[in-house]
């Protein structure tokens, strides 16, 4: 298993893995916005420095991705994606460890994510990795039914030596 930060040129890989992973939510009352993202929008976001992404590969085959951006003095990860046939192999946990390492590099003490409340298995997964719920809010959009989102965070101990 190898995890590497990718560049804008790798946006198609990011989109492919993300949309394969999020396809299971296509029949939800409110489909995931991941399905509307384009290679070009991901490419522009990475190239513009608004976000970065990492790809997890096994034998040079992409099997998972995570996207991150700095927000409110913390590191926010989103669109954590693992191909359905690769789930249960520790890929998501490895990607989250990569995010936490990135937070240490950037001297960010907080890592957070947002999870749909309708996916309690995802909430439990993050809780097992040390994240806790700090907020819940409702998303209201005129074109969809409203839905609840859980915000979760984890404090990452920034090394004292990094401040010297």
TrEMBL record:
Keywords: Acyltransferase, Ribonucleoprotein, Ribosomal protein, Transferase. Residues 1-157 form the N-acetyltransferase domain. Pfam families: Acetyltransf_10. GO terms for cellular component: ribosome. The keyword Protease does not apply. One of its GO terms (molecular function) is acyltransferase activity, transferring groups other than amino-acyl groups. This is Ribosomal protein S18 acetylase RimI. It comes from Salibacterium halotolerans.
């Amino acid at each position: 298993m190898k995890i590497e930060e990718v560049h804008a040129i790798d946006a198609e890989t990011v989109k492919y893995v993300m949309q394969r992973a999020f396809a299971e939510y296509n029949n939800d009352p409110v489909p995931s916005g991941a399905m509307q993202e384009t290679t070009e929008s991901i490419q522009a976001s990475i190239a513009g420095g608004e976000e970065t992404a990492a790809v997890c590969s096994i034998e040079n085959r992409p099997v998972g991705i995570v996207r991150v951006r700095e927000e409110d003095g913390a590191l926010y990860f989103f669109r954590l994606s693992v191909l359905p046939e690769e789930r249960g192999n520790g890929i998501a946990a490895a990607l989250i460890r990569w995010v936490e390492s990135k937070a240490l590099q950037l001297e960010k003490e907080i890592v957070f994510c947002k999870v749909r409340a309708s996916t309690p298995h995802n909430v439990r997964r993050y809780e097992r990795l040390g994240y806790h719920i700090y907020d819940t809010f409702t998303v209201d959009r005129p074109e969809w039914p409203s839905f609840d989102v859980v915000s979760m965070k984890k404090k990452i101990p920034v090394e004292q030596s990094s401040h010297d």
